[in-house]
Amino acid sequence: MSSIRHALITGGSRGIGLSIAHHLARNSYRITLISRTRSALETAVSSLPLISPENAFGRAANLNHAYIEGDVSLSQFWENLNSETGDGGVEKGTVDLLVNCAGISQNSLLVRTQPSVIENVVATNLTSVMLAVRALIKAKKFRSKDAGIGSPSVINLASLLAIKGGRGAVAYSASKAGVLGLTRALAAECGPMGLRVNAIVPGYVETDMTKGFSPAAREEITKHIPLKRFGTCDEIAQAALFLATNEYANNCVINLDGGLSAI
């Protein structure tokens, strides 16, 4: 039987999502990236390491990485993904791992934040996760735990602001706190069917989002982090690989914030 596993990664065209894709691809995962921008997806997929043919043990297998363009916050997107034919179709019983990494930030006081922005943040960061898991379970897209290559799982990306809060990020903090509540509920609900659900809680990580911080802001943040630096996308990806492969990890929440949540 082939050892090749299949991972769907939302928000996978850059940053943490793309780093997770690279780590998984180097460990015999076929990757399907999901994002809104086709050009970014094409570039991201082309950067992924090829899966070694010998890892398929001679069994015919689709070793090509792929991408699906779309808005994960829309229920229609997931309905299309469940189609057995046409663009974006995902076959039944072929998904070993779903990584919910799609997310958008918000930086404004609540009273100055437009309702449309609040709705978009919650829809992208939280509702999309519920829609994704619901759709894949309902359409039996997850591979059976009896397939011989380990149990399927879901990894949700939350945020330090889900547990610590942050001025000017009410919608974002609330959406990410919801991701943790969702993870706990799904771990209890889906565990008996052999689907593991876990979460990663990153702190400040070197991404396109944090590159926009002013030097003064970075200095102020860094002085409060016990390890005195931001994390890297690769460090988050290492945790994702652990959660994907550890068969007893269910409702496992990993904080990766350099100790900032302890302050």
Automatic annotation (TrEMBL):
GO molecular function: oxidoreductase activity, acting on the CH-OH group of donors, NAD or NADP as acceptor; quinone binding
Organism the protein comes from: Delitschia confertaspora ATCC 74209
UniProt family annotation: Belongs to the short-chain dehydrogenases/reductases (SDR) family.
Alphabetized UniProt keyword annotations: NADP, Oxidoreductase
Source organism, top-level taxon: Eukaryota
Protein name per Swiss-Prot or TrEMBL: NAD(P)-binding protein
InterPro entries tied to this protein: NAD(P)-bd_dom_sf (IPR036291), Sc_DH/Rdtase_CS (IPR020904), SDR_fam (IPR002347)
Gene3D superfamilies: NAD(P)-binding Rossmann-like Domain (3.40.50.720)
GO BP term (any one): fatty acid biosynthetic process
